[in-house]
Amino acid sequence: MVGYYIKLAWLSLRKTPLLSMLMIGTIAIGIAAAMITITVGYMMAQDPLPHKSDRVAMVHLNSWDPTQPYGYRRNGKNDIPSTLTYQDAMALLKADKADKHTLFAQFSDMIRTTTSDVRDAQLHPIRSTTRDFFDMFGVPFIYGGTWSKEADLTGEQVIVLSKHENDRLFDGVNSVGKEVHVGTLLFRVVGVIDDWQPTPRFYTHRYLMYQSTLRYFVPLESQIRNALFSPTSMGFSCWGDDPNSTLADLLLSECVWLHLWVEFDSVDKKDDYFGFLSDYSEEQRKVGRFARPEPNRLMTVPEYLEKEGALSNENIMGIWFSLAFLLACLCNVMSLMMTKFHGKGGEIGLRRAVGASKKDIIIQFGFESIFIGLVGGVLGLLFAQVGLSVLADMFSNLHQSVMTMDIFLMVGTVGLAMSTSLLFGLWPIYRASQIQPSSQLKSL
Amino acid sequence: MLQTISENAKGYNMLKMRGVAKSFVTKTVETQALQPFDLDISQGEFVAIVGPSGSGKTTFLNIAGLLEAHSEGQYYLDGKDITGLSDRSKSSLRNQKIGFIFQSFNLIPELNLFDNIEMPLRYRTFSRKVRAQRVMEALEKVGLAGRKSHYPQQLSGGQQQRVAIARALAGSPSFLLADEPTGNLDSKMADGIMALLKDINQQGTSILMVTHDMDQARQAGRVVEIRDGYLTEQQLALTA
Ligand SMILES: Nc1ncnc2c1ncn2[C@@H]1O[C@H](COP(=O)(O)OP(=O)(O)OP(=O)(O)O)[C@@H](O)[C@H]1O
Ligand SMILES: [Mg+2]
């Protein structure tokens, strides 16, 4: 019987091609608009570190200017910095109270291979960090691996490349052991990572969260020992009047610029660590620092994303607007269905006369509505893909992955189209089933 | 006023109406389309319904065929009181006991002949094989066996009405209801349809047929006239 109803739905669509195209097109456009905004919102709101996002936390210390707050949160309360001074970062690292620590900053420099000409060097942002970065954030390697503990301590000149850069510089071969120039210095390749793009890039500032990951990684200590300083790309915030025109100045200053993330084997260790942070700021208060009242923070990945507003209000508004648009489209589809089913009065009367019950009529037109939804949904999926790729081109600073549907969203799109089409078909279907068998038999 | 029509029993009593009447109530007026009447129709009868336009013939046929509810009285179809039956039971009675033939054929244009004739069978629990067998038998009866894949618009009016008859026959109903089945056909085609209906009647199916053609009425065994909603039995001379 299902086959029969699908056949009838298909014949019915073919019978009134213009009306069918209008219905299908309207659903497709509404669904596409909704799914584009939902995709962007949904992909932005993904848990970027599944299985351990509640065990990985970011350290925020309130080392800021006693005379005025660092800034204001969205709820109007005073904010504290989400990055640390060099002296605090180093103190926490040395105390070694968490199971893993990742400290990072960034700078930029000219990069080229040893065999290429100086003029071929390209300016790149470089992640200066510690060896656990890759493990903590789940970065996959194709060749080699992270650097040694030694390298972190002694500032060894070693470097990890992205697959993209390894392809560009070394034609994709295993480049471990080869060397690249970072400015005038030589760095030895120890690892090449595979394509890696957490969505969102949770470990950094909000305005960088949907941008591509950096392509070079070196030990933080190597940046410091070589005094690699690029003020415009390092992103530090300062208060007071400490000098900050060289890296050495920066290290001694109250400027904040280092991200510190810690990982715990179990969630309960988090409270102990927070206690340790409180003790630390208490001690610092004794020597005249940490004079502000706002407490320190130890934020897990979801907490930090929420604080940074990873899924912005504009996104949520966009989703609401597109759903309202979808609703308008569906209302149109409903009126088209009304017209369509009205034109089938003769057939309905005939079917009722030869023995179809109201229920049979409801099922027949239910199938037709779902069928329209299915075709509209598939077309809408296509439109949404086109829309997303146009968006991806327009906002090329945002990473591609935000603009890509996963299988769940694809199935969801078609499912949404089918179910809403049925839902908004219910009234027309009900009306069709109420047609009196006797009233329509004079014409067909 | 209650009219009684003499019982013309020749077999099992298929249709029994007692005091049946129909009025249409709209916002402004109430139309008494059929005055109360009694009527019995036996198995195998061929009854012609005649009368002027607007007198209530179609209304009567719709009530007999369960397409419309009567407003008063009792109606027993095949011994079963149909008053107050659910939509479902009425649909299934229509499906199994009654075959309809309309003036305008009422075939579904996007379905071929086979699918058109099969349609009533789809609302029963027949297997695909049984359905196909019944459709082919019905097509043979109306002489269109070779045309099952044609579409209605590829046929003449007379042929289309034959398809409609085949559709009505496929479910092997107890009786056929025909509302001016030859109204849209020329006289030659009409004669063919009439001959076919008589043939079907000979094989035992009761027929109720509305017609304006006195000739056709005479060919039926029994004539009921409706005038301004009043039913009367007519005694027609069997020769013109
Ligand atoms: N649904 C309805 N609502 C109101 N009045 C109706 C309805 N159907 C029929 N009537 C009225 O009932 C009366 C009988 O109509 P009916 O269609 O039975 O006539 P008929 O004898 O079949 O006429 P014709 O020979 O023209 O087909 C008419 O006065 C008609 O206006
Ligand atoms: Mg009529």
Write the layout of secondary structure elements.
The complex is a heterodimer of chains A (444) and B (240).
Chain A: H1 2-15, H2 17-44, E1 56-60, E2 71-72, E3 78-79, H3 86-95, E4 100-113, E5 122-129, H4 133-136, E6 141-144, H5 149-154, E7 158-162, H6 163-170, E8 179-182, E9 185-193, E10 216-219, H7 220-225, H8 231-234, H9 247-252, E11 259-263, H10 269-286, E12 297-300, H11 301-308, H12 313-342, H13 345-353, H14 358-394, H15 407-433
Helix pairs in contact in A: 1-14, 2-12, 2-14, 2-15, 12-15, 14-15
Chain B: E1 13-25, E2 30-42, E3 46-50, H1 57-64, E4 72-77, E5 80-81, H2 87-97, E6 98-101, H3 113-122, H4 128-141, H5 157-170, E7 175-179, H6 187-202, E8 206-210, H7 214-219, E9 222-227, E10 230-234
Parallel strand pairs in B: 3-8, 3-9, 6-7, 7-8
Antiparallel strand pairs in B: 1-2, 1-4, 4-5, 9-10
Bound molecules: adenosine-5'-triphosphate and magnesium ion.
Q: Which terms summarize this structure?
A:
heterodimer, A: 444 residues, alpha+beta, 2 domains, two-stranded antiparallel ribbon, 12 strands, elongated, B: 240 residues, alpha/beta, Rossmann fold, 6-stranded mixed beta sheet, 4-stranded antiparallel beta sheet, 7 helices, 10 strands, 27% strand, disordered N terminus, binds adenosine-5'-triphosphate, binds magnesium ion
Provide a compact summary of the structure.
The complex is a heterodimer of chains A (444) and B (240). With 444 residues, chain A is α+β, with helices and mostly antiparallel strands.
Describe this structure in words.
- The complex is a heterodimer of chains A (444) and B (240).
- Chain A is α+β, with helices and mostly antiparallel strands and 444 residues long.
- Chain A has helices at residues 2-15, 17-44, 86-95, 133-136, 149-154, 163-170, 220-225, 231-234, 247-252, 269-286, 301-308, 313-342, 345-353, 358-394, 407-433, and strands spanning 56-60, 71-72, 78-79, 100-113, 122-129, 141-144, 158-162, 179-182, 185-193, 216-219, 259-263, 297-300.
- Chain A folds into 2 domains: 2-45 and 312-441, no CATH class; 56-308, no CATH class.
- In chain A, the strands form 2 sheets. Chain A has a 6-stranded mixed barrel. In chain A, strands 2-3 form a two-stranded antiparallel sheet.
- The longest helix of chain A has 37 residues, at 358-394.
- The model of chain B is unreliable at 1-10 (pLDDT under 50).
- In chain B, strands 6-7-8-3-9-10 form a 6-stranded mixed sheet, with helices on both faces. In chain B, strands 2-1-4-5 form a 4-stranded antiparallel sheet, with helices on one face.
- In chain B, strand 1 (13-25) and strand 2 form a beta hairpin.
- Helix content of chain B is 33%, strand content 27%.
- Chain B has a single domain (3-234), classed as Rossmann fold (3-Layer(aba) Sandwich).
- Chain B contains 7 helices and 10 strands.
- Chains A and B meet through helix 1, helix 13 and helix 14 of A and helix 2 and helix 3 of B.
- Adenosine-5'-triphosphate binds at residues 24, 26, 31, 33, 51, 53-59 of chain B.
- Adenosine-5'-triphosphate is lined by residues 24, 26, 31, 33, 51, 53-59 of chain B.
